[in-house]
Design a protein that fits this description.
6 helices, 91 residues, mainly alpha, 2 domains
Amino acid sequence: MDKAAKIIYKYHGREDSEVAKLEIREIALHVKLSKPQTLGEYIRGLWDYKQLFNSHSARWRTGMVRYPGSRCLSRHYLNFKNSTILNNTNL
């Protein structure tokens, strides 16, 4: 951390600079709060969909995003459009 502080003081002001002190405090807090992840924790985090369903409003938003896509890809929608598609392609 001392090397980082020296570099920040060098490029962002002297040791009495409030901006440099603030940056050093932010970096120290980030280092303290961030913990290294194992490969297993990282992979489990990729497949964690709890945020999409943890509240009523989150479920609503998820449904509103998924609904149009499911309608366009369903057989019902394609069967409904078949006559238009076939007429436009002259088949």
